[in-house]
Design a protein that fits this description.
mainly alpha, 7 helices, 72% helix, 0% strand
């Protein structure tokens, strides 16, 4: 009797492997740590007593997770000898998209528009995205070196 095997496409298999890898990486993140980092980074702009704070916090956490996963996915270039800054240049377009999204997201919830007075908020968003990208990059590099990917 012949065994019937499931036929999958290369793209489907690649997607499944990527999802497994992301699940392994996300086990290293703590929701408590993410919430505390949002609180300390964005406290000058959004205080926890603000009416829409939880909505803003959720958006910031979502973007932090995406940035973390982006850094981890680019860590393979670091494994092959590129510096962190060189790898960051490779992912510049995606990172700047996350920065712009987060900045616009927070401004929308605060009821502000983009102007020069909120330039420091933009730099805060940039440092926030960079922080989580680097954490993901280092975690991905660690998993590659330990062959846990």
């Amino acid at each position: 009797m012949r065994s019937l095997s499931v036929v999958t496409t290369f793209q489907e298999r690649k997607r499944q492997k990527r999802l497994q890898y992301e699940k392994k990486l996300l086990r290293e993140l703590s929701l408590k740590v993410l919430q505390e980092h949002v609180k300390e980074q964005f406290n000058p702009y959004v205080h926890p007593t603000y009416v829409y704070y939880l909505a803003i916090e959720d958006g910031c956490i979502d973007v932090a997770i995406e940035s973390y996963l982006l850094g981890a996915s680019f860590s393979r270039f670091g494994h092959f000898g590129e510096s962190v800054n060189e790898v960051k240049e490779r992912s510049y377009q995606e990172m700047s998209g996350y920065i712009d999204y987060l900045y616009d997201f927070i401004n929308t919830w605060l009821g502000k528009t983009r102007d020069m007075s909120t330039e420091d908020l933009y730099f805060t968003c940039e440092s926030y995205i960079n922080y989580w990208w680097e954490k993901g990059f280092l975690e991905g590099l660690k998993k590659i070196r330990l062959r846990l990917h």
